[in-house]
Amino acid sequence: MEALTNLLLGFSVALTPGNLFWCFVGVFLGTVVGILPGLGPAATIAMLLPLTFKMDHTAAIIMLAGIYYGSKYGGSTTSILLNVPGESASVVTCLDGYQMARQGRAGPALGISAIASFVAGTVGVIGLMLIAPPVARFALRFGPPEYFALMVLGLTMVVFLAGRSMIKGLLAMLVGLWLAGVGTDLFTAESRFTFGHMELLDGIDFVVVSIGIFAVAEVMVNMESRGGTELFKVPRGIRNLMPTLKDLKDCRFAFLNGSVIGFLIGVLPGAGSTIASFLSYGAEKAFSRYPEKFGTGVIEGVAAPEGANNSETGGALVPLLTLGIPGSNATAILLAALILWGIKPGPLLIQDHPALFWGLVSSMYVGNVMLLVLNLPLVPLFAQILRVPYFILYPGILGISVVGVYSVSNSLFDVWMLGLFGILGYAMRKLDFPAAPLVLGMVLGDGMERALRQSLMMSQGHLSVIVTRPLSATMICLALAILIMPLVNKVRSFRLKAVEQDV
Amino acid sequence: MKRSWYCLLLITSGLVLSGTGDFAHAAAFEPTKPIEAVVHTGPGGGSDIFARAIAELMQKEKTISQRMQVVNKSGGGSAVAMSYLAEKKGDTHTIGFFTGVWVTNPLTTAAAKVMISDLTPIVRLVLEPAVFAVKADSPYKTMKDFIETAKKNPNQLKQSGGSVTGRDNLVRLVIEKATGAKWVFVSFPSGGERIANLLGGHVDAMVIEPQEAGEHIKAGNMRVIAALTDKRLPSFPNVPTLKEQGIDVPVIPQARGVLAPPGVPKEVVQYWEGVFDRFAKSAGWRQYLEQNQFEDGYLKGPALNKFFDELAVQMREVLKEAGAKVVR
C-alpha cells in the first residue's frame, strides 16, 4: 500500500510536462548513443553534465537515467543489422540476430529486441520499486569467493556457445582469458604482456576485440566471395517486418528469463550487463526444446540477452540508490551528478528525497513506454539499411567500426588493434573456431582472476574458501552440472546407438 | 538579437576593465580558444568529476573568458594522460589535472616514461582528507583495538582498497611499519566494491573520504575509528587522529591540482596562477570545498615543486620497504 501511495507521488512528479519532456530527451539520446558503437552512456552523461546544473534536480536525474537505460535499447540495432556490437552487452545478440537478418528476418529481430527490452526493462523497474532494500542487502553477501563462483558459472556458458567442436570452443575461450590478462596487475602494479606499449597498460578494450572479431571479420569473409553474394532479403510490407504472434509466444520464457537474470546480476556491483546477457542466453539455450538451432537465427536468442541487459539497468540502480554504491561507470557518473548538485546519495536517499527517488522510478515506467513507441517505428526504417548495395555497405561497416573503436578512448592505437583482431577473427572463421567463447573468456577473465586472487588473499591461500561458503558452493555445483550435462547426453546417445545396433 | 549584442559588449568591456590591473605586463596572456583540460580517468572517475566541477564553477564565477573542455586520456594509471601532455609541449591552451598517482605511477611502472617533473606545475588545489572506517557492528572501537587484534592474529584482518600504489595501501604500510601489526590489503578496482565488501563483512576496514563515510554513518552502517589527518576533521570532532592514538606516522596526502605541458611561456604560467588565485578565493569554490569536506591545499611556485619532490622521495621509500618493484 505504501508503495502505491509513493508511486502516486512519483507519477505526479514524472508526469509534469517538463519532466516528460526531459524524460523523452534522455531516452531519445540514449537510443542514439546505443546505436552508435563505441560511444557509451557513461561518456554521454559526462558530456551533458554541465547542462544539468541549471536544471531542476529531479528533471536532470530523469534525463540522465533515460540516457542510461535508453542506450540498452539501441545497442542491438547494429548487432542485428551489421554484426557490429553497439555495446558490450549486445555481443551475444550478434549470434542469432545477425543470422536472422541474413535470412531476411531483420525486422522481427529488431522488433523482438525492442519488445523484450520493454518487458524486461519494466520488470526491472518493478523490482527496483518493490524489493530494492532486501535485494541490496542480499547483494552484500557476495564477497570475492561468490564473485569467483559466479564467473566460473559464466564461463561454463562456453558449453552453449562452442558450436560444432567443444575443443575449438575451449581453445577460443582460453585465448579470451589470456587477452583479459593483458595490462597492469591490480595487485602488484606490474605490467603484463604490454611489450613496452603504454597504450596496453590498461588492458585491451573489450569493444575493440568484439568489433574486430565480429564486424571486421564478417566484412573480410564476405568480400572474399566477390560478386557471388546476394543482398540480404528484406521483405516488403510492415507486417513482414514485425515479429509475429508465434514469435512472441516462442519468446515467453525468454522475456521472463531475461528479466530475472538481468535484474539479479544488475544488483551485484561487480558483475555487469555483459555477464547478464551471456548468462540469459545460456539459460535460454539450456531450457530450449531445440538447443541445436541456437546460433542459426533463433528469435529467443535475441530476446533473452536483450531483455537481460535492460532489466540489468533497473537492478544496477538498486545498490546506487539504496546504498550509494555504483556498480558501473554509467552509475558512477550518475552518483557524481547527485553529489555535484548537492544531494547526498547514500543509504538515506530514498528517505531524504522521496520525490526524487519515486519521480525517477515512475519516469522509468514512462521512459520504457516511450522507448517502445520510439523504437518500433524505427524497425522498418533500419531494416532498409540492408538494401544498400555491398560496395557501399561494407565500407560503411568498416567506417562505423573504426569510428566506434576510436571514440572509446580517442586512440589511434586501438584502431590498429581493431585491424589485428579483424585478421584474427577472419582466421578463426576460416579454421572454424567460434568467436563467442573468445569474447566470453575476455569478459569474464579479468573479474574472475581478480575475484580468485582476492579470495585467496582473504583466506591466506586456502582454496577451500570457495566451496565452504554456501552461496559460492551452490554456484560451483551448478557450474559442474552444466559442464557434465553434455557428457551425460553423449554417453546416453552412444548407448542408444549401441542398443539399436544390438537389435 | 540586439539585446544580446549589447550584453556581449558589456561583458567584454567588463573583462577588459577588470584586466586593467595586469597592464603592467607588456604582453599578458589571454586564451583565445577553449581550454583543453586533460584528466587521467574515464568519465565518472575521480579526476574527471573534479575537473568537470571546476570547469563548471569557473564558468559560474566567470574566472576565465573561455570554456574549459575536459578531455579523458585514461590508461596506464596516469601514463597516457601524462605522455599526452608531454607531447603537447609549448601548447598554451592545454592544462592537466594531476593527483598523487601522477607522482607514484612512474615510480613503479617502467612503461610510464613521463615524470611529473617533466611537466609545468601550476597550482595544488585540494588535499583530500581520509578516515579509517570499520563496519558499525565491528568490535573495533578505536585504532588501538584494531592494531592490537592485528598484532595478535597477523594477516587475519582485511582492508579493502584500490591499487597497491594508491593512498589506501600506503596508509596501511606506514601504520604496519610503525606498530608491527600486520593485516591484508585486498584490492578492488571500483570504490563501490570496496564499500560493499566492508558492509557485507567480507573485509574488516577501509580508508574512505569523510563525505562518503558521513552518509553510511548516518544510516548506521559504518563507524570511523581514526582521522588520517594532522588535525581532527570538523565533520568528525570526536574521532581522534592517528597521532592522538599513539601512532606516529607521516600523513599520506592525496593532492589534486593543475599543471601545464612542458615548455609553456612564462606569461601563460602567470596567467593561470592569476586565474587560480582569484578562483581559490571565490565563494563558489569555498562552498565546493565545504560540501566535499576537502582541505584547501592551495600551493604554487617553488613551494609546489618542493611538495612534489618530497612526495616522490617519501613514496619511493614506502613502496620500496613494502617490497614493490621501484623502477625509478
How would you portray this structure in words?
The complex is a heterodimer of chains A (about 500) and B (about 325). With about 500 residues, chain A is mainly α. Chain A has one domain (about 1-500). Chain A is built from 23 helices and two strands. Chain A is globular. Chain B has helices at about 1-20, 45-60, 80-85, 100-110, 145-150, 165-180, 190-200, 210-220, 265-280, 285-290, 300-320; strands at about 35-40, 70, 95-100, 120-125, 130-135, 160, 185, 205-210, 220-225, 255-260, 295-300. The longest helix of chain B is centred in the last third of the chain and has 21 residues, at about 300-320. Chain B is of the alpha/beta class and about 325 residues long. In chain B, the strands form two sheets. A six-stranded mixed beta sheet of chain B has the order 2-1-3-10-4-11, with helices on both faces. In chain B, strands 7-6-8-5-9 form a five-stranded mixed beta sheet, sandwiched between helices. Residues about 1-25 of chain B have low confidence and may be disordered. Classes of the chains: A mainly alpha (about 500), B alpha/beta (about 325).
